Amino acid sequence: MATTGSNVSKRLVQYVVVRSDLVHALSWPLGAVITQACHAATAAIHLNYSDPDTQEYLAELDNMHKVVLQAPDESSLSSLSNTLTEKGIAHKLWVEQPENIPTCLALKPYSKDIVQPFLRKFKLFK
């Protein structure tokens, strides 16, 4: 866990938001959807590798914390990505190629209190 200047610990979390309609309405195999989430999480870490929170998150490999949430469809996922971009929240929207289908997004590791206001309407992935 990270510690702030006041010696209060903060938990760094990497959030991944996956379109649930890929499994439930479009009948994608679960393994294919998990692969999309892995791609997005890896890309978000790569793009933000030099970020201090990312480095701290990676320094504690055995204590990494991820939360996987579900977006109901492409529209809600794209809307979330737009909001995060507007608010300066670093993330990677994963777009499967060559089909050009947005499937999920992953944020760089953040303290929960920074990003939870943007993620409140998304439930745990089922």
TrEMBL record:
<dbReference type="GO" id="GO:0004045">
    <property type="term" value="F:peptidyl-tRNA hydrolase activity"/>
</dbReference>
<dbReference type="InterPro" id="IPR002833">
    <property type="entry name" value="PTH2"/>
</dbReference>
<dbReference type="Pfam" id="PF01981">
    <property type="entry name" value="PTH2"/>
</dbReference>
<keyword id="KW-0378">Hydrolase</keyword>
<dbReference type="InterPro" id="IPR042237">
    <property type="entry name" value="PTRHD1"/>
</dbReference>
<protein>
    <recommendedName>
        <fullName>peptidyl-tRNA hydrolase</fullName>
        <ecNumber>3.1.1.29</ecNumber>
    </recommendedName>
</protein>
<dbReference type="InterPro" id="IPR023476">
    <property type="entry name" value="Pep_tRNA_hydro_II_dom_sf"/>
</dbReference>
